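Researcher: Please generate the 3D structure of the following complex. Treat every line as part of one assembly.
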Amino acid sequence: MRRIGFSTGALARGDFRLGLEILHRHRIDVVELSALRVNELAPLSAAIPHLDLSGFTFVSIHAPSRFDIEEEARVVDQLRVLADQGFPIVVHPDMIFNPGRWQIFGDRLLIENMDKRKPIGRTVDELRGLFEALPAAQFCFDIGHARQVDPSMTEAALLVRCFQDRLAEVHMSEVNTASRHDPISKNAVNAFSAVMSSIPEDIPIILEPLIDEGQSDVATEMQRAHEVFAVVAV
Amino acid sequence: MAVPTHSSLQLDRLEALLGATWASIREAQAATIKRRSELTKSIERGSPDTSLVVFGSVAREEVTSGSDLDWILLIDGQSVPEHKEQEREIERLLLKGKFIAPGVSGVFGRMVGSQELVHNIGGEDDFNSNTTRRVLLLLESYPVGNREAYDRVRRQIVRRYLGDDRGLTHGGTDVRIPRFLLNDLTRYWRTVTVDFVYKQRADNDKKWALRNAKLRMSRKLIFAAGLAHVFFCHLDTAAEAARTALIEEKDVSLLTAYLSNELAKPPLETIAKACMELKVPKETSCAIFDSYDQFLAILNDPEKRGELEKAQTHEDLRKSAAWKEVRNVSQPFHEGLVHLFLRDNDELKQLSMTYGVF
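Model: Done. Output below.
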């Protein structure tokens, strides 16, 4: 049985409580708590002890995706509190200004491959150096990003092969040409299926399609995700 | 003048092994580095959805004094009106930089969307111009500046050739030759040879000798390099993991990555790799590379090139010393390739016979 859940940011932008409520309603037990904007991190950190996360089998935290180098130390300190509670921390490679600062996270640090807007962290070659600098770090594979960078899905397959031993989480959504996370299309299902079939069953799949404004709904996106694993190659 | 480029590792090794000096090849490589640098400086960086792609001698690392510049503005993404402006700007900047403009065939010197390149492989909509751009994108292209769109489209095309080739993943033997790709490369080469005669009639023999020289040498070289790439999918130890993934997992990703990387190498480097790895006799390598070196020397001599450009009639050809030189180098070059693919190495010979003919 695949472990599929959602990012709270995809369900309710900037409102992790509402995101959790929606997941409870749908009896989904896999979640990534989103603090994509730096000002969301402190409130999330303060709220976590009071959140009912008991029904979840997997909970990770998405670190802010944009902050300045001067803010790095403060963000690391805030995230460390969460990592110490056992939460895996997903981070974008372009936010790791000083890898030495992030070593304290050990294997609770999950480095995510990037979309084509970012100048680093998009491919195996671009990620390899970062993993050398942070040898204990794990890998969060964003298949939507990988497809946007290389629609032939070759880079996606290479990322999974190369960092298989580090793979700890998968992000799934359609990433459009403007790099927005959209609901998963049938084309994406077909493109994802070959690569996703090699993902071990126990790896949590976090869905990231933005559906906070009615673009789609939880049930449809869950169904699409299951279709990805149901497609059998000829 | 020995100016090795990053991409001439096997060529360097072969030259050293044979104790040869390929001065004209080295000169052409040095001229290529200079030309590429001038191009990069001339052109403003476009959006990540576009790449300026150049073909011909700049891509093959064989720039000589009279080389022209075939280019396209490759678009892989949303289509916007500004692309037309970008196309005009490239045209203007290249003219300002005194780069020799592409011919008037309409194949080059314009914007081209990725859609037809990726989707129209074969069938009625795969026009001559589309086949030409697609195959040259694989065998003989170089991105100036922003290369993201270029890399994406090339991989998509390679993926199409491999992903649609059921024999690759479901074949009954352990031999894994991408036949869809092989057939299209062969089709392109044969089309070039047929179109040569068409142009002879349509252009009233204009530039006949220069065209013929290129057909005998540089056009043949890229076809030979294409064949080598295809057969190396089976022969190359570096492709072993890719072959295993094909057979055991029905996965073409590794072979797509392998071929995309290999296709990015200049054709002389690919042929040098074949000569080195298949351990062909010295005579074969010399026949190929000494001849090609002399061919580049001819092209780099403005007087000889001019003579070839002007020669039209049988009488012109009979009198032309440059044409005689071309014939003298093209024959051993051809023989060298015949020995490489069909005589010197049993395994390559077998592959060439089994897959290259029928």
